[in-house]
Description:
Rossmann fold, 3 domains, 36% helix, binds zinc ion
Amino acid sequence: MSSSRTAYLDEWGWAEHENAHWSTVPAGSIAARIICRYSATWRVIIPSGSRETLVEASGAFQYLCAGPQDYPVVGDWVALSCDGRIIQQLLPRRTKIARQEAGRAARSQVLAANVDIALLVFGLDGGRNFSIGLLERFLTLTAAGGVEPVVVLNKADRASLEQISSVRIQAESIRPGVTLCVTSARNGTGIEELRDLVPAWRTACCLGRSGVGKSSIMNALLGEPLLRTAEVSRIQNKGRHSTTNSQLRVIPGRQSTTSGGMLIDTPGLRELQLWGAEESLYESFADIHEFAPDCRFRDCRHQGEPGCAVQRAVAEGIIPHQRLEHYLEQREELSEAALRNQMGAAAYEKRRWKQITREARRKR
Ligand SMILES: Nc1nc2c(ncn2[C@@H]2O[C@H](COP(=O)(O)OP(=O)(O)OP(=O)(O)O)[C@@H](O)[C@H]2O)c(=O)[nH]1
Ligand SMILES: [Mg+2]
Ligand SMILES: [Zn+2]
């Protein structure tokens, strides 16, 4: 693609990665980025001419999709037919945010693609709105997807300085040095700081439980209430979750004339079953992996083996007991998911062969 053509694509997050894969799409295709997904249609932005439009997927494309993970999600780059109406191909994802599909552990569900930064949003209004366990899960998820985490502690207007600093210390103990931003979508605290964390050409994605203020933060960054937040939905009696579809938007830069980065608002996560390689835990549980090389056995699972350096660190109070528990729990979950995924693939192969042999028999 010529450099003049990529200039406006860059603004929408087109990177070297997309450039490299563009050569595989049919000649004359139009590049577009998914900004919202409905059940069988997608809203895309076509950067050339900065046009938004609704598109469908071609039959040939759908035929080649092996499962839901192959369908475009918000943030994906696709190649449209030359009339700009049909999705013909999905470009490989540079990064992704994926979890286990709720209720069906054999499959992954991609929540957003080509994301650079994940804003892990928690509410400072007490209750279950901040939990170490969820932060640990988020950090495994971002490590698995190749996404940089930023912890956002929202609703600062609802907490005392002592409460804020206590939560901050807890978050920093889990991930020393993690970027952390204290915000209030209500009174604007920290919103400009957050804006600086999502620079032009970068894509960020808000993740968090329902009601922590993801849509409110996005509205504050946009400077206008474009997205529905909880109060509005309550008036309309529309269930508990106010956001039902992920959406990608460009946020304005600090000077209203400059453009900032892109932000994806997602529906609240009710559960976060992990999906990814066990290696993702190296990053989210770096402290545990620091002790592991000192275990007597090279393949120590830190579950009561003699000479386990991790267990010793727990006994000495260097690693909190709860942290090792969470680590073992997440490791179990990841390997279980991988196993079921393999079994799923095997069952699929078996069924496919049955079909092939049946057809061959019929032909005889
Ligand atoms: N006090 C206070 N309330 C806030 C703040 N941010 C959001 N809220 C309120 O919290 C409620 C939920 O906000 P939403 O933005 O809808 O939360 P959400 O995370 O998008 O929720 P889902 O879309 O269901 O996932 C609304 O009543 C907001 O007005 C804040 O900084 N301070
Ligand atoms: Mg919302
Ligand atoms: Zn060990």
